[in-house]
């Protein structure tokens, strides 16, 4: 328990470092937000200067940073100059969309990669093993936006079996009453199978796109870990004692092979949080990743800073949960 508390406390300097880094990065971006915001040709230099004063850009970097820290301490993430809405409101509205897509893709990747890696390790050199290597290679070598565009071209444009990539739901359909923020779950709670099915069809292609990205490291790690355990001394002893193949694989080999896989699960989920930015743009998914990308284009500082801070917090939380799960698999490796 003390180690858990220590890990939480040690994350505070990390978050503060992220605050400083994101603040400085946004300030060195090329362009002037005041000029971008005052895009009306009729505006004079005096008008642009008034906008710069209103945005606080006339102050020194240190003054801007202290003002930002003071607002953050009060729970104020700032106001978006693009939408005019509080950034916290925008983030809370869009976060369920990103979370639903990421979790759906993550569960899909786990459901495919772990069985695939186990079978590939049990049958080295077989077609399953070759398939595992091909998927791992494709997942590593192809950017997520390329995979997404290829899937859209094949299943929407050529075959016509996928819906138009216009977000979480068809524009002519109504969302179910919000309970969890996840349309798939809210549709089931509301007893609306039509909306649930429509939402499932919309999330399938972007989910597969992100799942392919996650499949590569998970399948490769599962295969390598299983091969390593299957060649160990205690597995040979179990075989010599006459234990069944199922007993050896499921009870001894699989459990011992899961420790590095659990660690990879946490790292992969963290990487997926960054990968969803481009996927959301490709599929017009209204999540925080697409919101951050739009803010970057429009030099909107506040949403960018909030996005990076939220991603850093989630990254640290995922690492902590990963250590706890590793402790359940192997108490020697986890936190206590």
TrEMBL record:
TM spans (from-to): 101-122, 134-159, 199-219, 253-273, 306-329
CDD domains on file: TM_PBP2
Swiss-Prot/TrEMBL keywords: Cell membrane, Membrane, Transmembrane, Transmembrane helix, Transport
Localization terms from the record: Cell membrane
Entry membrane topology: Multi-pass membrane protein
Ranges where the ABC transmembrane type-1 domain occurs: 95-326
Presence of the UniProt keyword Nucleotide-binding in the record: no
InterPro entries assigned: BPD_transp_1_N, MetI-like, MetI-like_sf
PANTHER family: DIPEPTIDE TRANSPORT SYSTEM PERMEASE PROTEIN DPPB-RELATED
Family: Belongs to the binding-protein-dependent transport system permease family.
Name of the protein: ABC transporter permease
Organism name: Pseudodonghicola flavimaris
